[in-house]
Structures are given as C-alpha cells and as structure tokens.
C-alpha cells in the first residue's frame, strides 16, 4: 500500500461473486436487501431499519462511493449476479490509512444467511486485502453473543491478539481491554471480541 497516492482496488470477482464498491444507482438493490433482511440484521447491526426508502439507500450508496474515492472508508457490496447478497468493507477504525490497518465489517442478506456465504466472503476479503490492497493488519470485531459472526472468523483463522499498545476505539474511547485465554483481544465494556490477522 503506497501511502500516497493510494488508488483503492475497486472490485474482485471470486467464487461466482463480485465484491465491489457501491455506485450511484445501487440504491434500489441496497434498499431491497436491507428491508428484506431487517429481522436477521437488527440484533447486531444498529443501523438496520425496517422502513428504509430507496432514496435514503441511494444517498447512502453515493456517500459510500464518495468516501471510497477519497480513501476515507471502503464499503463494498457483495453481488450474486444482479442481486445484492450482502455488504462488507475495509473500515479505518484503528487509525489513518497510512497505518495499513483496517477492520472488516460484514452483513449477509437474510435469504443468503447460513449457507456459507459469510465464510466465503471473509476468506476472499482476507486474501484480497493482504495481496492486492496491501493491508498489514486486518481485524474482525464481534459481539461475543454473535455465534455466527464468531464462527465465520474462526473458520478463517488463525487470528491473534494485537502486539504492542492497543489503539483506542474511536466510538468507545473509554473501553478497557485485555487479552483472553485464547489470545483474543477482549473489550470488556462492550462484551466484544476483536481478532487480528497480520499479513501471512
Ligand atoms: C454473521 C454473518 C455475517 C455470517 O454469515 P453467514 O453467511 O450467515 O455464515 P455462514 O453460512 O458462512 O456460517 C458460518 C458458521 O456460522 C454458523 N452459523 C450461521 N448462522 C448461525 C446462527 N444463526 N446461529 C449459530 N450459528 C450460525 C454456521 O453453522 C457456520 O458454522 P459451521 O460451519 O460450523 O456449521 C451473517 O449471518 C450476518 O449477516 N449476520 C447479521 C449481521 C452480523 O452479525 N454481522 C457481523 C458483525 S461482526
């Protein structure tokens, strides 16, 4: 990852899926995916809403596209043909791009969940992220009660705790952290687990 200028890869096709940056015009597909997935997403995704409009989704796609081009945040859609099967992304929650460290986020559309897609997408994101993007460190962050999320990470390990000082989480600057017996970093105020994967 050259510090400047950095041109983020725009898409990858793997395993019959296309993972790509959002574009203007993706709003209807995003709205349909999110509204139909509300029950599935709402326990874990605070932003999930049952009554998203096409206009609001379109605005979100355009914001994501803009932030992507500006290297501020890299939100990606997961496409199975013309259908949006989920979302993922490399998010700069640890620090600036120059630190080469990002958190992978993910949601899978309700009708695709539990069929191995999340596992495949995370595998693709780790390979793409290290090989083509140049990330040095990728993190997976999940609520300890989110069995499916923890399992998706576990199946794509090994992960390990971060060496050296832990950066503060921007959203929860007072979070206290420690390493648990598996070497995973535990943020105890939020009952969340963060796993880190370094370039292999
Ligand atoms: C978490 C999520 C991304 C996983 O994706 P997925 O495509 O459903 O997961 P997979 O089908 O690849 O399943 C992976 C493992 O989790 C298990 N799993 C899937 N859904 C499960 C559930 N609801 N409860 C318990 N285990 C579950 C699967 O059995 C599989 O484990 P196995 O191989 O040992 O059988 C997806 O379910 C989702 O979008 N959840 C809501 C949003 C979310 O939690 N995002 C992650 C935030 S960190």
Describe this structure in words.
This protein is an alpha+beta fold. The protein has one domain (11-188): Gcn5-related N-acetyltransferase (GNAT) (Aminopeptidase). It is 28% helix and 26% strand. It has five helices and nine strands; from the N terminus they run ββαααβββαβαβββ. It has a nine-stranded mixed beta sheet with strand order 1-2-3-4-5-6-9-8-7, with helices on both faces. A hairpin with a 4-residue loop joins strand 8 (185-187) and strand 9. The protein is globular. The structure holds coenzyme A. Coenzyme A binds next to helix 2, strand 5, helix 4 and helix 5.
Summarize the structure.
It contains five helices and nine strands; from the N terminus they run ββαααβββαβαβββ. By secondary structure, it is an alpha+beta fold. Bound molecules: coenzyme A.
List descriptors.
binds coenzyme A, Aminopeptidase, nine-stranded mixed beta sheet, alpha+beta
- Return the CATH architecture: 3-Layer(aba) Sandwich
What level of helicity do the residues show? 25-40%
Mean pLDDT: 84
CATH superfamily: Gcn5-related N-acetyltransferase (GNAT)
Number of discrete domains:
1
Estimate the global geometry from the Cα principal axes: globular
- Residue ranges: pLDDT <50 for 5 or more in a row? 163-191
Distance separating the two termini = 15 Å
Give a topology summary.
Blueprint: E1 11-14, E2 17-21, H1 27-36, H2 38-41, H3 54-69, E3 74-80, E4 83-91, E5 101-108, H4 117-133, E6 137-143, H5 147-154, E7 177-179, E8 185-187, E9 192-198
Parallel strand pairs: 5-6
Antiparallel strand pairs: 1-2, 2-3, 3-4, 4-5, 6-9, 7-8, 8-9
The site of coenzyme A has 21 residues, from α2, β5, α4 and α5.
């Amino acid at each position: 990852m050259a510090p400047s200028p950095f041109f983020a890869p725009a898409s990858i096709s793997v395993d019959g899926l296309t993972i790509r940056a959002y574009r203007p015009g993706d709003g209807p597909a995003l709205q349909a995916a999110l509204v139909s997935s509300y029950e599935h997403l709402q326990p874990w995704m605070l932003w999930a809403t049952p009554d998203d409009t096409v206009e609001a989704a379109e605005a979100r796609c355009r914001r994501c596209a803009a932030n992507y081009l500006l290297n501020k945040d890299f939100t990606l859609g997961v496409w199975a043909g013309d259908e949006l099967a989920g979302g993922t992304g490399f998010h700069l929650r640890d620090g600036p791009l120059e630190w080469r460290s990002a958190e992978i986020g993910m949601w899978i559309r309700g009708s695709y969940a539990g069929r191995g897609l999340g596992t495949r997408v995370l595998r693709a994101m780790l390979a793409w992220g290290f090989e083509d993007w140049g990330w040095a460190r990728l993190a997976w962050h999940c609520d300890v009660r989110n069995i499916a999320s923890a399992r998706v990470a576990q199946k794509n390990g090994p992960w390990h705790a971060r060496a050296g000082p832990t950066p503060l989480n921007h959203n929860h600057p007072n979070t206290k952290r420690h390493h648990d017996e598996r070497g995973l970093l535990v943020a105890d105020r939020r009952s969340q687990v963060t796993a880190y994967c370094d370039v292999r």
